[in-house]
Amino acid sequence: MKKNYKQIPIGGMITKAGNSEEYKTGDWKSFKPERDEKKCTNCLICVNYCPENCIKVKNGKLNHFDLDYCKGCGICATECPFKAIVMELDTECEL
Amino acid sequence: MTELTGAQAASFAMKQINPEVVSAFPITPQTEIMMDFAQFVADGDVNTEFVLVESEHSAMSSAVGASAAGVRSMTATSSAGLALMFEILGVASGSRLPVVMNVVNRALSAPINIHCDHSDSMDCRDIGWIQLYSEDAQEVYDNTFIGLKLAERVKLPAMIMQDGFINSHCLQNIKLLKDAEIKNFIGKFKPKQSLLNFKKPVTIGPLELFDYYFETKRQESEAMISALEDYKIVCKSFEKMSSRKYSAVEKYKLKDADYAIVALNSVCGAVKDVVDELRINGEKVGLLKIRLFRPFPYDDVLNALKHCKRITVMDRSESFGANPPIMSEVVNSLKNAKKINSVIFGLGGREIFEDDIKNIYYNMIKNKKQERYVGCRE
Q1: Searching chain A, which residue's CA lies closest to the CA of residue B204?
Q2: What's the whole-model pTM score?
Q3: CA distance B187 to A29
């Protein structure tokens, strides 16, 4: 829930360290990544390429995309050697 | 009584405030202020860190940085210098930093001109700074303290204007206050948050996009409106100390006046002389002098002028293709533009004479068409 003008510090001042986590940049995306589990070999090249560090790994395997921070840039899809990631229109995105 | 120029009055006020940081770049006719203040620094009269910068853009940036760090910072400028600062003026007000600046009004280029008009400070009227205008050296001196105290109360920067040369370079008798009185009046500057407060670390001046910028500006607007009430409180405590009474507008022989002239800064002195002379002949004329231009005291102006039959507003700056700044605000106050004449005078230091002011008055009472430009060759 975004705050109104009476609820925020004056002059845009940031009073809490690390509050960029509260900024869900995932709002910006128009396309979201979808993984084809049959094609994915869990090579994790996409993890290294993701500029937002939002491809999450569990027990050495790709677990999920953190869509709160994924901006939909599509680098993961471009770099995947097995074409296991496809960018699809994010129908929930705010247009 | 002490003899000081308007510029010296400003630098003497700065000496008594003793700000932690002053940054400056020379420009006519402001230079006198910083020249004097540099002497105070050299003589050890102040503890100020005096930062000599390479431009006004840097002077304001340095003042903003110091204020964000948590100390009092001041500077002064004129004309092109103020124009060069413009970008950072918005950073000071947008970040809610109470920087205080003396502005010596001078015309803007082109054509290049060193003399007085108000085009420099009027161009900054919508940038979120409190604006106080001063008729004489005494008001420059007093407005500097009032401006500082008000700025720190509402957390907005303040500029204190005086007319270039007419006020800044003319010796006038003024009443000074004692150092201890000033120290007591302004108190210590203790911002709740600042960059150098390591116990409560903050970021000042971050990015805000479509989702928060609007709310931050809304806060700024509310703060500026609240400054109207705060100004009265500050003036009251100033009066207690100095026995000098200030208000957002000064009403000169206006109570029973049928006709009013509205003006600000040094021309008010000449207008008062003309009003006195006309009053001897039984003319019912008065002057409304505006001291506080931002925030604008709409109610005070309405109450002061509503009984007048006709009004002429004297602006010393243009708003090309629109009503000039003071006239616009007077129209907004009265919501009845029919009885208001507008005059633009004195651009680039062009002199205005008492006869010109008398003509303005006679045009007003005879309901004759007032030429928009007085003192300009048609």
Answers
A1: A13
A2: 0.91
A3: 51
Closest CB to B212: pick one of A8, A15, A17: A8
CATH number of the domain residue A34 falls in:
3.30.70.20
Q: Cβ B94–A2 below 8 Å, yes or no?
A: no
For A57-85, b/e burial (b = at least 16 CB within 10 A) is eeeeebeebebebbbbbbebbeebeeebb
Is residue A21 included in any domain, yes or no?
no
Average pLDDT per consecutive 10 residues, chain B (378 residues; last block may be shorter): 97 98 97 97 98 97 98 98 98 98 98 97 97 98 98 98 98 97 97 93 90 91 97 98 98 97 98 98 97 97 94 97 96 80 90 94 90 87
Contact between chains at A12 and B218 (C-beta distance less than 8 A)? no
Which residues are CB-contacts of B369 (< 8 A; sequence separation ≥ 6)?
B363
- Complex ipTM, two decimals? 0.81
A18 touches chain B (CB under 8 A): no
Instruction: List, in order of start, the domains of chain B with CATH numbers.
Output: 2-242 (3.40.50.970), 249-374 (3.40.50.920)
Of B202, B222, B223, the CB nearest to A13: B202
Q: Look at B203 and A3 and tell me if their CB atoms are within 8 Å.
A: no
